[in-house]
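To whoever picks this up:

The parser on our side crashed when reading a file containing two proteins. I've narrowed it down to the boundary between the first structure block and the second sequence. Both blocks are reproduced below exactly, byte for byte. First block:
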Amino acid sequence: MAIWQYKLHIIPKKAVLEQYGKIPSVIFVDHQSWEAYWKNVQYDGNRFPNPDFEDAHTKNWWSNTKVVVDELVKKVDMCVQRAHWDKGGEFGSYYWKGTTNLLEDHDAFISYDKETNSISEFQFRADLRNEEKALRFLNAMLQLCQELECLVFNVDGDLFEPDIAFILKDIKKSRAVHFLKDPEDFFDTLEATKNNEASFWNKIQALFK
């Protein structure tokens, strides 16, 4: 994830209501367990094992929501181009990727079960470097979320209706905007924590070598 990107996960509103009986402002993201998971996980060359804890990322929000994946994919195609590595759903996933050097480094991802046609993950990231292009992409994806009767949550689990006003307010507090507005202060802040995180990220990088 590029530092200039803002990330949102898409989940059905119905599933949230079934889980909580209302729409909470925050859903739990277990950052501590994720850090422990990535420190200790063993990659078998094919896939990572499922985490043994539940949070907003591991819960299957889409299990009781019927979506025609092929139709959904066509709608995302209208928002952002396919990634060059996309295999057309061959392996139960679709990837989209904009053009980085045109300040359109937007992307999206869908993972689904090919046998049941059930989605397991749906997310997107907006490149914030160009306001006009970012708004165009965000509005298109949020409109799609509205059509699907979905909500979105950010990296900390803050939950939102797919309304651009709410999202823009959250974007102003994001790491991406911090970097774009004041890169020097951003890296000073990053420097203060990097010693604690260095071994963690070295472990992650080593998994792919």
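<<boundary where parser fails>>
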Amino acid sequence: MNDINTNNTIKSHSVSSNVKLLVKLLWKLHKKMFLILIISVPVYVAVQFMGIYIPKLALTLIMSENELSTILITVSKAVALVIFLNILTTLINGLMNSYRLEFTHQMIMDKYDKVLFTDYENLESPHVQTLYHRAQRILDNMGNRTGASNIVEGSADIIKSLLGYLVYGTVISFASPYLVVFLTVTPVLNYLLVKAYNSYEQKNRSNWDIYERKMDYISRESGNLTLAKDIRIYGMKGWLVNMYKELYVKRLLWDKKLLIRNLPVYLVELLIILIRDGLAYFILIKMVLNNEIGIDSFVLYFAAISGFADWVGSIITNAGTINKTAYAVSDYRDFMELEEKHNRNTSRTYLENIENPCEIKLENLSYKYPKADNPTLKNINLTIKKGEKIAIVGLNGAGKTTLIKTICGLYTPTEGKVYINSRAMDEYNIEDYYMLFSVVFQDVNFLPFKISELVSNEESYKTDKVKVEDCLRKAGLWEKISSCPEGMDSLYNRQINDNGVDFSGGEKLKLSFAK
């Protein structure tokens, strides 16, 4: 298998292509979400604008010496509009949360589908494990705006902010057009710094990926019941804890480096806010003192400047977030677009006419593990005739398991061919090819399903229970299974299922033979 470069220094996909991918997925799942996003833009901006306009409206009415009833009625109408808009916003947010969950869930299911059907060789590769770990980042905190939805909703937020920018900018321009220009230009420097920081983080991520992957492994395997005996008997607890701490310290060093790297961004942002707001408010106060604007207009402009800064900041923040999220989406796509060597395109028809038992022929078969100096298998020529029984014997590490995995299609030969009934492996749809074999490997693992389902590899309603019983009898396991409360319908794995059944190592092998 080709080595995969984990030291990417730039996104493997452009921001625009990532936006296009997610929009396409969202359109496929929920076309209504786009309508909701479109409606949310003017509604959100209107809510914000009414918040700064109502105080100005009230002051104008008071200064114009209107009757109290007129003031109350006019202000009440404005407040009622705000209440309506806020209710509408709440409904929009509720629908968005629902769609966001399904959107992220679909991406998770697509990732699981890739994991389940990708070439077995991919799963064994440390490089692919790193890609998998990176891909998971985009799906973390499902339902929150910290993952894939950042790009789609962030793009909508930029449109909201642009509309808010135009509305508030128009208001401020009546006071001074130069203020609009000044308030727009100053945050650009901060955006450039944020973008540079995101680029730095992306370029250096491979430095801590390995620590995170190892920490995840230790955390996951520490709860593995299979390893629990060794951890206790051999006193491995302290060793594992110390190893985790060492990895955590190394990972924390990179967090500190990132924090130091990001400190100037925060300081510059603070300085920009002080200069921007200080100068803007100085101009407004001067205009009031010179009787160029009234108190009511001062209140409106004062709030508009603060709101305008928020709109500009929102544009910059969302642009930076989209830029950063684009890296994570690229990671997701890198994993999802992993090259598959096995044939998955051929129509699944060969098994219908295949003759059993099969003849297996290996022709100049060689296999070399990625980054290995020498091939584990080299120029193997072997023919296993129909019905023939053979034993493959060799020293530890001689390549016996590698040979079996290659014959079964789990590995793709580096050189040479595997033939089943004179048809090469790559001519079969790999899913069909897998069905030609029944293998009992050294490490036996079962999912927590019913015993009958584990033997038949089918759901209960599809399972031929007579055949399952026959197989269990032939494997010497029927007496054990029949003594279970639910018989062959008993659930496996007591740790997951309250009334589950567990097996010894030998019994697991017998269950594999029955399967």
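After patching the parser it read the second block fine. The two ends are 30 Å apart (CA to CA). The CA atoms of residues 506 and 512 lie 10 Å apart.
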